[in-house]
From TrEMBL:
Pfam families: CbiA
Species of provenance: Spirosoma soli
Domain of life: Bacteria
Phylogenetic classification of the source organism: Bacteria, Pseudomonadati, Bacteroidota, Cytophagia, Cytophagales
CDD domains: ParAB_family
Stated name of the protein: AAA family ATPase
PANTHER family associated with the record: COBQ_COBB_MIND_PARA NUCLEOTIDE BINDING DOMAIN-CONTAINING PROTEIN, P-LOOP CONTAINING NUCLEOSIDE TRIPHOSPHATE HYDROLASE
Domain CobQ/CobB/MinD/ParA nucleotide binding: 4-189
Transmembrane parts of this sequence: none
Matches recorded under SUPFAM superfamilies: P-loop containing nucleoside triphosphate hydrolases
Amino acid sequence: MIFTVGGIKGGTGKTTISTNLAVWLSQQGADVLLVDADEQESASDFTAWREETKKGQLGYTLVQLNGATVRRQIEQLRPKYDHIVIDTGGRDTASQRAALFVSDIYLIPFAPRSYEIWTLSKVQALLGEIMGGRATPLQVFSFLNKADTRGADNSEATDVLRENEELNFVDYPVINRKAFATAASKGLSVFEMIPLDEKAVSEVDALFGHITGIKK
Ligand SMILES: Nc1ncnc2c1ncn2[C@@H]1O[C@H](COP(=O)(O)OP(=O)(O)OP(=O)(O)O)[C@@H](O)[C@H]1O
Ligand SMILES: [Mg+2]
């Protein structure tokens, strides 16, 4: 499967979700390619730290791809891997559009703050254009990341996302937990970070299980 993690907002957790998903898939024994399609190169930075921490045992292959050629390059790479995870930048870029034309699944994290929701119409416009240019439908999943443990912000954001059917909101929130940042600074997923934050692990595990349909 080819996953694009995107959206039109910075800092929602795209790289966090991409890198954790790449590791999660590789832990199931799959051959995984992580594509860094963001000029900020955060997925590449994560991978560089991972090289050090894991002594070269990454568990996935990393490539950097940019611009409209992403589409053709992914098509060429597709047969070589079980899964491809594409991390995009937080804007409407040529790379994100190109990635969406060849992806099976589009993951859109939203952080539950009211300003996040303002990019919804842009995401919808982008989706409309992509869907129009594809032979097969793109499977979309939106979800909350950096969610509060409880509180009004989560439920307000959930309500707004639910109103937009094409965003296919799934109720598998990933809570704002220090473990994500701590793990990332070492190039690790939360599945590998000792001590294990069991809540963080079970949240992403549930989300990934749902979107991939993979039963462990
Ligand atoms: N669930 C979470 N809990 C706590 N911190 C998180 C969570 N998800 C992401 N973060 C932190 O939030 C910051 C932004 O996350 P990340 O880099 O994944 O976002 P992004 O969408 O890729 O950003 P950009 O748009 O700049 O590419 C990072 O410091 C990351 O560690
Ligand atoms: Mg990023």
